[in-house]
């Protein structure tokens, strides 16, 4: 996943005064991703501003309701901060009442059905592509959710198609001007591997080119010279991608924030992957 250095993140947040959302938009990632970077680099958040009367009225007019819609009304505030203010304003229903509600029971039944969906692990191409996206701009959590939040709807639709090919039932929505895609499969999340296991699986069973395609759709860009690059600040991830390139016969060099495919190998690179975005094609 694309990242920035601790120094640059501190500069943007504390000196230039950008919000986590604004930093995320600059680097095409979600606000939550920026929050994780700040925690990782031990960069303290600014003290939250007081709720204005206008904000309170807006919250009263819309809470409770759709989480993504409400979050979009308060782009500078976390969902946890919104929930706490809703409780403070007596807008949130009693937690015990909520846990016993039919709404929660219905949602749990739906998630349970989704998490029990059988994954078509025989579809190595779709599986490898999804794995590449998850390692790029995508995400997964311990609740069995797999997702992606991007500005490019073409990329989002391609990810949806690959998820459907695996037998999943992906959902799609809009959030803060981005297309959000998510699906539930505890089976698939449990299957995900560490880097060493992943490299071995891609070489012996998976489709390494489709994995690279997923990574490039997520975190790739095309240098004006025509050399493709997969961006990352994670040293282990960059080394992993370089090893996979070596296996595929692609000459690539690790740089500060990317793995750079050399010009002589660019033709072979694009001969084996089909990027969804025209600006990333040779």
Top keywords for this entry?
single chain; 282 residues; alpha+beta; Endonuclease I-creI; 3 domains; four-stranded antiparallel beta sheet; 8 strands; 53% helix
In terms of topology, how is this protein built?
Blueprint: H1 6-15, H2 20-26, H3 31-40, H4 53-62, H5 67-73, H6 79-88, H7 95-99, H8 102-115, H9 124-135, E1 139-140, E2 145-150, H10 153-165, E3 171-175, E4 178-184, H11 186-191, H12 195-204, H13 208-219, E5 220-222, E6 228-231, H14 235-248, E7 252-254, E8 258-261, H15 263-272
Antiparallel strand pairs: 1-2, 2-4, 3-4, 5-6, 6-8, 7-8
Helix pairs in contact: 2-3, 9-10, 9-13, 12-14
Number of strands: 8
Give a quick account of the main beta sheet: strands, pairing sense, barrel closure. 4 strands, antiparallel
Q: Low-confidence parts, pLDDT < 50 over ≥5 residues? A: 94-100
Indicate the overall shape.
globular
Q: In sequence order, what are the helices and strands, one letter per element?
A: HHHHHHHHHEEHEEHHHEEHEEH
CATH class (first level) name of the largest domain: Alpha Beta
What structural class results from the helix and strand content? alpha+beta
- What is the CA-CA span between the terminal residues? 22 Å
Number of helices: 15
Strand order in the sheet with the most strands: 1-2-4-3
Oligomer: single chain
Structure description:
- This protein is an alpha+beta fold.
- The chain is about 55% helix and about 10% strand.
- Residues about 95-100 have low confidence and may be disordered.
- The chain is built from 15 helices and 8 strands.
- Helix 9 crosses helix 10, helix 9 (about 125-135) packs parallel to helix 13 and helix 12 (about 195-205) runs parallel beside helix 14 (about 235-250).
- A hairpin with a 3-residue loop joins strand 7 and strand 8.
